[in-house]
Every structure is written in structure tokens, then in C-alpha cells.
Predict the structure.
Amino acid sequence: MNSRLEQGMLTLYHYDRSTAAQRVRLSLDEKQLEWKSVIIDTATGDASQRPENFHQLNPKGLIPLLDHNGFTLPESTLILEYLEDAFPDHIRLTPSSTQERAIMRLWMRRIEDGIHVASRTIGVCIVNRYIYKEADKSKLANYYAQMRDPVRKNNDQINIEMGLESPLLPPSLLAFKNLFREMDAHLKTNSWLAGETYSLADISLVVYLTRMSSFEMAPLWKELKYLCAWFNKIQNRGAYNTAVIDWGDSTAEKRKTEGLAAFETVKSLWTNAG
């Protein structure tokens, strides 16, 4: 039977540089699943790309959103787990060991425990505030009017206004400094985050190194040699090229320019954090 008929139709609503979308694309490509792409890029402060019923599919109005034969699922980490359950005959990205699966989920839990919010704070303070300030004012107002997450909206307002002086930036950098140190220590004695198996934990967290590197921040953790070696291993995987590199980043030049301009300030905050 045709593999496409066996798996049914998978459609992913996403855009190029979203960390949440990157991890879903990594899973899809590692599992060698066929899928259809629908681009919805709201990160530039324009909500008009969303289909009219998008909030019915995901009340938060965010991507990624997976549609599998009419069943829709938001939230990237839930999508990762769903793909494992829905396609058990494809390449597995969960360890066979009960203990390693638990370790995998502990690492993935860090996303909901605050690291994703910290990632957005860093991005808005360094780069996105300039993108939003250049955006069409009416579209930006509509973008925030439709934003259903009050914490996200409040954080954005503070970070857009204050940039590198935002009181939310130092704790966000500290969160990443602590996470990267913990990952480095763990990877000193383990091949991958869950142990000896490349898993959803690696896929879930590698996207933050990709994001921070796009802001020219990689020198901040260059002494964490086990973390750096792990990142290099993942970058050399075929799925990283198809799921991350090949999709590009429409804001790459802006990220580089503003990241370099912010580096010394961010480095000082990073050094003094914790």
C-alpha cells in the first residue's frame, strides 16, 4: 500500500523561523513522514494571514497547528507525542527504556516551565521590537487585539518599549544560562539528553540554540564543550537541514545586525546572571 495512504494527510500550519514549528518539522522529517505546508507568519505583527476559523482550530491563534485527516492539534510538544503514537511503525523518537522516556519528558517539561517564554523575551528585546516598530500600526494593533494570552501580550508591551533595559531580560538570560549549563553537565556522560537515544528531548531543545545563535549569541556558551558538540551532531543530521536550514529565516539579516549591536550588553547581563 502507498505510504501516503497509510499515513493519511498531514498538514502543518507554520512559518520558517518559529522554534515551535522547527521542532515539529524536525520530528516529521526524522520520522520520514510526508506532509503539506501552510505558511502563517504572524511574527511580524500581522494577523491577517490566519484563516478566518483559525481561532476555532487553536484558541490561542498560534502556530504550529497540525491537521491529520481533519483532526487538529496545537502545541508543539503535544504534536511531537501525537506523531509518535499515530505513526509507531515509522522511525521512533522515544527511547525504549521506561527510565529514559521519563528523562526525555523531564527535559521537554522545561519548555512549559518557562524557557519558551524566556526565549520570546530575548527575541523581542534584541530584534522583534524593531520589526514591530516598523510594522503597519493598524495591523500591529489588530495583532495584539487578537492575542489571547494576556501574559504574552503584557510581556511584549514591556519588551518592545524597554528593549535591552527590560526588567524581564536578565531573568530570561539566567534561565538559558542555567539550562545550558545543566545540559552540558548531563551531556558530559550521555550521548543524548535522554541517554543513549536521540529523542524528542533533543528535538525539543536544540531549536533554542538555533534561535540564540541566529542572534549572534553563540559566544556566550562557547566554553560548554559538551553542549556545543551535541549541537554540532544535530546540525549534521539530514533532518536538521531539511527542517531548519532549508526553510531559511526571512529575518536573518535583521537578527544578525541587531544581535551584533546588542551583544556586549547581553554578554554583560549573561555574565552577571547567577
